[in-house]
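quick one, 407 residues, struct below
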Amino acid sequence: MTMQQAPRTGALLIHGLGGTQYDLGPMHKVLRRAGVETHAVTLPGHGGGPEDLLPVVAEQWLETVTKAYDELVDQYDTFHVVGMCMGALLALELGALRQHGKGRLVALAAPVFIDGWSTPSYRWLRHLVYHLPGLPARIKVEENEPFGIKNDLVRAIVKAKFERGDNFHYRWVPLACIRQVDRLRRWVLDSAHRVVCPTLVINAREDELTTLRSYDFLLGAVPQVQGVVLENSYHMVCVDNDREQVMASVLDFLELEASAGRPRARRSVEVPMSADAVAALTGEYLSALTTGHFEAVYPLLDPAIEWRHLGEHPLAGVYADRDAVIGLFQRAGQLAGDTVRIEVAGAPRIDGQTVEIDIVVSFQVDGDPLQARGTQTLQLRNGRIRAVEYRQDTDTASAEALARLTG
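---
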């Protein structure tokens, strides 16, 4: 008697321009939980610096995904293709080129047209600039706020990563590279009707890069197509407010177990935290503060946190939720730039789920080094920080230092 092998399902996931697999958020994890073996490609010109994109042409991107597809597709009984942004254009062109029919295709935020609300009215001029010798290679197309993200928390984290220079997404791309994206867009305009497999198209109504004109085109051109319009996201749909809807829609379309995309429900009743849990959360918080990775603080906060900054200084006040606290940190950055440094003076004092921390804040104003001292009292609950109160020391030096921030 022979054992019959269970059918295998795989998927090729394609990131966007200047990006990494971060573009797809939890898609890899969600699909793996549903029993799909996922595979990623790093497109030519990516994984290093923006200048690496200069010699790359669209044919190289397509060749990379086609080669990966050809190597993988015969290993599986079912094989899907999923692309985000430029990766969605590549997925569509791949589907038409290879007449993909062994699985399904998902196009996320495909910019068939570059006409979103953040693109300048003179965007058509780029087609003229392309023909000016040397200029397209020298012009930088910057990645600026809102970074394709409507969610305040996620946007703040992404902004901090950009400012720190983390290698998760290019901060700019050369205009010469946009020319290659335009070539790829024209290919999709010509070939979308040749995509033979069932296709899911997901776009956000408020996408700053592309309007729903892209969505409408694909729904009219691709023969077997379904569409989803998101109402509370910008371009980066896999990490924005509608990310759970995106994951659920993809799982449903691929006929996979929907529970794989659901986040674990948090406890709705208060459970006392163990001493180890309190120590671990405190350690994460202090690490974020003292390393200057302030964006790592935000996920530790309860969405309904109350943060009180006592005293008489520019940051004094009550910050009534997590978004307000993000604003507090951003305000501190505006006042003192990247000169803010936080040190902990002594070990934290822990009493149950209450933690007291003495901190020293160093910063510069007009090039002069200044310092302020104070004590933070944290109230923890259910694995998050529910309240923070900061009491500034009353010594004259600290008060005068903070007062100077107002100029």
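Residues 50 and 112 are 23 Å apart (CA to CA).
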